[in-house]
């Protein structure tokens, strides 16, 4: 099936004045921010812009294709999306500016964003999802116990300070954690900016706390939020969603469906299915039940401990983790043995709870499936019995 690259081949010769912005354009721009634009795209406060075509030339002058492909992260293909965009009439002259890539170990925050001005004069603010750094992944887990993360606060501040009065039509979007930041920033930013936001895109982005989604400010922005999930979504099903979401078909399976390059495209839209896969719903129900059995303090202690162990083993990126030598694995095991007896017991208790919750969820699902089959059989039996009765009465 077709994907983002095929879409760029098919629709690349049409400008935004000729063919209006659509949901596939959104996902392409949400991928664009994964490219390392430091020293290429002007930062906030710096004058000027750079076109997609110019940025592409500078990026590939500094980066080797083989080096990009050797990375572990599924977002590495963003560089090749940039390359394809630069070859199209639709995107080659789009202007990039306001780029930030801020990774703070002290704040436990990985924050990246870029603005794109299209030829229809609209602006797309693209917030990045989790990159290849362990700090970035930690911020995702921090959402499980923090009311707001440093990245979310930075996203709000970015919109409030970056948006200019002449920006009449604004779209805000992102993939993965970037989708969460897009919604959060749009909900919390100044009202005069909110009025000019025409759409907020969360592409397989995690949700929020119950308190957040029930707030008046969230409800006010709700009609503008568009959430898109792959059929076996894992990341996007985390935490709470109130908005309706659309489910797109993916050429991959399991966690690999989080890769936007696997989302199937037909024309100017995604290929949709009716609902997320049963296994995704099961995992979501299991994780939520398990998480809510733990106190916020317990969640924080578990996250702190796991990432401290990774730090002790000098594992700073996903590549470090996957390419770890046996020595680093031993260092991780040593770090675990240094935990206090109380923390070790918390880990054991949490794992027991997760196992128990998973079993209960699966049993409930199987029971429900059996009941549905029994009801279906009863219905068929009743129909068959009714037909026999009708034949008998005719005789």
Detailed description of the structure:
The protein has 395 residues and is an alpha/beta fold. The chain has two domains: 4-277, 3-Layer(aba) Sandwich (Rossmann fold); 283-394, no CATH class. Helices cover 49% and strands 14% of the residues. The protein contains 16 helices and eleven strands. It has a nine-stranded mixed beta sheet, with helices on both faces. Strand 9 (265-266) and strand 10 form a beta hairpin. Residues 236-241 and 369-374 have low confidence and may be disordered.
Keyphrases for this structure?
AB_hydrolase_fold, 49% helix, globular, 16 helices, Rossmann fold, 2 domains, DUF2974 domain-containing protein, nine-stranded mixed sheet, Mbeg1-like, 395 residues
């Amino acid at each position: 099936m077709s994907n983002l690259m095929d879409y760029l081949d098919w629709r690349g010769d049409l400008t935004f004045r000729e063919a209006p912005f659509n949901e596939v354009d959104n996902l392409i721009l949400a991928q664009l921010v994964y490219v390392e634009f430091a020293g290429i795209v002007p930062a906030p406060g710096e004058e000027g812009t750079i076109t997609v075509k110019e940025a592409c030339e500078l990026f590939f002058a500094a980066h080797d294709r083989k080096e990009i492909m050797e990375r572990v992260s599924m977002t590495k293909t963003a560089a090749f999306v940039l390359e394809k965009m630069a070859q199209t009439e639709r995107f080659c002259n789009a202007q990039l500016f306001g780029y930030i890539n801020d990774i703070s170990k002290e704040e436990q925050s990985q924050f990246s964003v870029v603005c794109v001005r299209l030829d229809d004069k609209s602006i797309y603010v693209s917030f990045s999802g989790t990159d290849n750094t362990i700090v970035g992944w930690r911020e995702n887990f921090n959402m499980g116990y923090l009311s707001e993360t440093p990245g979310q606060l930075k996203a709000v501040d970015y919109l409030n300070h970056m948006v200019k009065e002449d920006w009449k039509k604004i779209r805000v979007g992102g993939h993965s954690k970037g989708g969460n930041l897009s919604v959060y920033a749009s909900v919390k930013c100044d009202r005069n900016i909110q009025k000019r936001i025409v759409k907020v895109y969360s592409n397989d982005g995690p949700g929020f706390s119950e308190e957040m989604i029930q707030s008046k400010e969230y409800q006010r922005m709700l009609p503008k939020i568009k959430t898109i999930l792959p059929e076996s979504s894992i990341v996007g099903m985390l935490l709470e969603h109130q908005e309706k979401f659309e489910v797109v078909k993916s050429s991959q399976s399991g966690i690999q469906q989080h890769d936007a390059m696997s989302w199937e495209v037909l024309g100017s839209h995604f290929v949709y299915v009716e609902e997320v896969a049963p296994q995704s719903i099961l995992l979501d129900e299991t994780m939520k039940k398990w998480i809510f059995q733990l106190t916020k303090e317990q969640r924080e202690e578990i996250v702190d401990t796991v990432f401290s162990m990774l730090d002790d083993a000098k594992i700073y990126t996903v590549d470090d983790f996957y390419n770890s030598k046996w020595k680093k694995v031993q260092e991780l095991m040593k770090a675990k043995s240094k935990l206090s007896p109380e923390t070790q017991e918390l880990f054991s208790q949490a794992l027991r709870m997760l196992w128990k919750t998973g079993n209960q969820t699966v049993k409930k699902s199987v029971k429900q499936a059996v009941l549905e089959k029994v009801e279906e059989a009863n219905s068929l039996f009743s129909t068959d019995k009714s037909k026999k009765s009708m034949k008998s009465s005719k005789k």
